[in-house]
Design brief:
Length: about 325
Amino acid sequence: MRRSSVPLPRVVPVAAGVLTDATGRVLLARRVSGRDLAGAWEFPGGKIERNETAEEALRRELKEELGIDVLATEPLMSVPQNTGSKSIKLDVFKVTKYNGQPRGLENQALAWVPNNKLRSYPMPPADLPVVAALQKPAHYLITPEPTTDTTRFLRELDAALSQGYRLVQLRAKTWQEKPLKALLTLTSALCKKHKAQLLINGQLGLAHDFDVGLHLPSDQLMALQSRPLAARLPVSASCHNLEQLKHAQALGLDFVVLGSVNATQSHPGVAPMGWEQWQQLRAEVSLPIFAIGGVGPGDVAIARQNGAQGVAGIRAFWPRLT
């Protein structure tokens, strides 16, 4: 087999911790001069040494950097990120218990930041998906194509929202404009009742008129040259390859779905990409990505360990009421 003359990026394993105070503020540390991306803010941590687990590295790094003793952690996510010359694998943990008061022992500035203000701090690309995981839902519910039985559709949607889903895409591709407006009115009211964010699939005009978010099919995504809605309304897209992911990021979309990860009943002839390829694509962009295709609500942990914001889907997420 002929070997490629292009060297593979060097993989640097890194561990980072999310520390919060009694008010829910999150601790950030500023990179000192002389380091890559000096001046950027990040979740504190450092490189994982040989023969060291990610948790062991985190305890050591936070002792050296902040002077605290980490007593308990829980996994949050693992983010692969390519930076050109090297590839980072960032293992992130929530630090749920520690002793001591964090101090900048390496002359680094520290800041306790309200969760909703984290995005106002410039960060390395690998930290951005972590911010999204702390702020946004881990499930993206996509509705099945509604039938003419609107009452049943709304009952099932209400049941789904009652289960805790807070990010919803109304997917009604076969509906004409007038009945779709009536359905969107009812769906929007139900989502507002449950304090859930609603996006509509492909209908830019209706997104404007009803003040809801927009989900772009991949062909509609690639036809755009700028973000189609104001920043206060979320815009997402369906992506299947690197070109689409990079275009979505360039447009400043809020998140995307990427797949199919696994084989699905709805697309029996489509070869799934699998988690390995999914993770390789994830590493090339920093925007939040939901995994879709053959995943269910209980797959958040495995998705997060591959760098996903969470999981998206229709069949496994939608309650069927009798």
